[in-house]
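Structure ticket #2291
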Amino acid sequence: MSKKILIIEDEEALVKNLELALKDDFEVKSSQLGKEGLKLVSKFQPDLILLDIMLPDTTGSDILQELKKKKETELIPVIVLTNLADSQTVSNILAAGGRDYLVKADWSIQDIVSKIKESLE
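Resolution: structure written out below.
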């Protein structure tokens, strides 16, 4: 059975590229809105979540806190994908339970896929 990846990201081109790169190895679902993504977590039960910090309806930080508060979602690894690279944001995300923090501009799609596979080993 293939592992499930949930992408919560509002940058449509990035989502499409990630879906293409992941679809052969994983079952992938995505949401461009944080609150919708949070609902999808319960239904889809992903093995890993890729989470953007800047979302149209909420912040990735708020979503991460919600996930870590609930027993059924607290252990799901969350890789944060963002363009915010300031050290305070990075420390806040990692302190809140984020597994990894990737600055979009520094990572290719293939690098992100490798990071996902590494996190699920």
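Closing remark: The mean pLDDT is 94.
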